[in-house]
Amino acid sequence: MKLSSPSLAAPPARRLVPPSLPFAIFLAAALAAPLVMTTGFQLRLVSLIFIYAILGMGFNVLYGYCGQVSMGHQGFFAIAAYAYALLQSKAGFSALAAFPASLVVCALVALLIGIPLLRLRTHYLAMATLCFGLVVSGVANRWIEVTGGSGGLLIPSLAIGDKPLDRVTLYYMIVAATTIALALQNFIVSGHLGRSLQAIRDDDRAAAALGVNVAAQKLRAFVFSAVLAGVAGVAFAVVNRQVSPGMGEFPVLVSMLTIAVVGGLATRYGPILGAIVVVIAPQFLARFGDLQTLAYGACLLLFLIFVPNGLSGLVAGLAARVRRGRRGRPGLIVEPLASEVAKKGAGR
């Protein structure tokens, strides 16, 4: 008697958590946040969490799912913000028209540099994109007549008619942008494009042999991630009411990489978890004063050692343990069934 017969097979495992539940939790928490915020500073911190989450989602699609290392995405973060400011101040665009136009500028720049750069691989691609980020930062600092130099540019406040938007309304606009970005990311990674990107990440030659247009898919992922970085850049500029060269410099890249590592690469909700840590952790470490950077680096190093798969991996591991606990050990299920089969066989 084989215990692997269909009658003795274990029932298929049910999902412990429905796929839509994390999205519903995120949306409910985002909508309820202003109800528990007591100061404008707290609301600004939560707004920054969602802005950095959008930035992390773009990098997650490009690097986590497609395996393309871009060290210059902070450049798109700055380009879209400068385009948004200049289109209003120099070209007379309204804020409503300047936002999509700035994203078009961002996408065109990504398309222009992506076609030659994505022919490179591994550290060559990383160095080439890093040079792009340095160029953007240098132009922002030195083209004073256009960018305002180190002083940057002021962003006019958003308004409906003659009434400026309050902080809560602006917050909900950022939540809406984050929700759309998250839905797009989840749609992409769960469909044909997502499977193609993962095949390219694992082995681009094998993916090409299977019929994947590697160059086109890499370019799509690059442009999409650049546009999300642009959305985050415009939102950051609107919240701060200013665009500065610091938006295209190295600290933004460090924050983006930290979001990817802490949240978990190639995970759907890792960018949100990573953004929470990146925005909130410095507030707790401020008590260390001049040692804040040292404490931040030490905590990040310990995190890399003990939680290598990020917070998403940690949550998934805990969920798997709960799932195994609910099922029980296999022996406790198979042995009684086997004894029943033996009794039936003896009766025959």
TrEMBL record:
It is found in: Cell membrane. The chain crosses the membrane at residues 20-38, 45-65, 94-118, 124-144, 170-188, 221-240, 252-281, 293-320. It comes from the Bacteria. Its main location: membrane. It holds the Pfam family BPD_transp_2. Keywords: Cell membrane, Membrane, Transmembrane, Transmembrane helix. InterPro entries: ABC_transp_permease, LivM-like. GO terms for cellular component: plasma membrane. It is a multi-pass membrane protein. GO terms for molecular function: branched-chain amino acid transmembrane transporter activity. The keyword Zinc-finger does not apply. This is Leucine/isoleucine/valine transporter permease subunit. It comes from Caballeronia ptereochthonis.
